[in-house]
UniProtKB/TrEMBL annotation:
Gene Ontology molecular function terms on file: oxidoreductase activity
Xref: InterPro entries: AurF/CmlI, Ferritin-like_SF, RNR-like
Name of this protein: Diiron oxygenase
Annotated organism of origin: Mycobacterium yunnanensis
Amino acid sequence: MATKTARTRIIRRWRKNMDVLDDTAYTETLRTLSEGSVRRNFNPFTDIDWDSPEFAVTPGDERWILPATDPIGKHAWYRSQPKDRQIEIGMWRQANVAKVGLHFESILIRGLMEYAFWTPNNSPEYRYCLHEAVEECNHTLMFQEMVNRIGADVPGMPTMLKWVQPFIPLVAGPMPIPFWFGILAGEEPIDHTQKNVLREGKALHPIMERVMAIHVAEEARHISFAHEYLHKRVPNLSRAKRFWLSLYVPVVMRVLCSAIIVPPRAFWNEFDIPRSVRKEIFFKSPESRKMLRDMFGDVRMLCTETGLMNPLAKLIWRICRINGGASRYRSEPQRQHLVSVA
């Protein structure tokens, strides 16, 4: 009887936490985001002219050479390679980043549907989650088409993450807060890297430039929702739950960042890249460590504002080598990083 009563209390508390209609500011934000998805959205097969001559992938195209904002692209070993080798490495690298992106967004889509399944009637979160799921489906189509056009048989996510990924979306229902922090751990590094590439102004292949521009435009809404969701719910957690969450966040940021940013073993074997070069690129040199820290300025801002930056948490951020100052506002450019790269 006591067990049944406790279970009933948990279910009631869970349902109450998912009822957001009494928060006018939050529901208005969700309405704005949802209407933005209606007014401005992209279709990968109508907004990208894949068969246009300018989108053709041809041998020897130097626009595939990795930009200086890429940790591999700015390394002396890569810059010392012949142009053809740089192009080959660049194409493989960009194709695998796209493949990792579609793998990650596949997990997000399933998590969105799992979370939406439990939302009450009239919930504005239901509508937003479905809009985002549609956009992420289009992103996976776009990324896969990019991989197909490049022609590199890339593996995407690390093997271990592929084995555990079926279970990750199931967390979105009973434990949505850790799930959304995990989503930010995947979205923030990709978004940060793509924005830096576009800001650098280097001539990119039209496929890569168009795919990045579309992804950055729509990802702004997705990241905005994750931040708003966590801003609303994290402060309402008990002190004990906030403490454990504060230790979880830097760890999940570091682990998923490495899974997304660091190429798989097949890459290093394919191009016979020395182990010493790999270690220096990810993340031994001062420049690469700064790049790693810069990726999570917005997350550090979120943690500071929601009470997740206690002394022990700060130590974990430092141990994970992603500590640093918080952004003053979301998507604040890391200007010092860009200057040092130039």
